[in-house]
Prior knowledge:
Blueprint: H1 3-28, H2 45-58
Amino acid sequence: MDRREALKRLALLTGGALSMSTIAGVLGGCRAGSAPGYRPQTLSSDQHELVATIAELIIPETDTPGACGRGAGSSSTGC
């Protein structure tokens, strides 16, 4: 193994070791589902309704559930 190959492998191993703690921290905060009544605080009510409407236009209901049928909107937006 020459020096360039050794440096490439060292960089790959170091980068992997450093990024694994970050990835573990991010994934540790992820949870399946959400609490009842959860409402994103980054969007206003009107913006949330717009996103749900656009999602339903992109993924309409056919023989399978559309975006609203899969939970893209909430009951308060009419989805």
